[in-house]
Specification:
By secondary structure, the chain is mainly α. The chain is elongated and about 70 Å long. The model has no long low-confidence stretch (mean pLDDT about 75). Helix content is about 30%, strand content about 0%.
Length: about 80
């Protein structure tokens, strides 16, 4: 079983540890979350020509009624 406790204060951690010691729990592993990894942000590829994208959706449905009619072949 894995239990995660988010403790912001060192004194709170000591209190929890003393509680676990009184319960005689031996399989306790403390993992520090000091590695707050942030997502890597990179700039996009500016070499793409956005004008090539215009018109790629000209034959696709644009509203929910058209999407349902095309996908589920409903007749009204």
């Amino acid at each position: 079983m894995k239990v995660t406790l988010e403790i912001t204060d060192f004194e709170e951690m000591e209190k929890f540890l003393s509680l676990f010691r009184t319960m005689k729990l031996e399989n306790i592993k403390i993992v520090s979350s000091t590695d707050d990894s942030k997502p890597e942000i990179v700039k996009g590829n500016k070499s793409l020509n956005p004008k090539e994208l215009f018109g790629i959706w000209k034959d696709t449905p644009r509203n929910i009624k058209d999407i349902r009619a095309k996908s589920w072949h409903r007749n009204e």
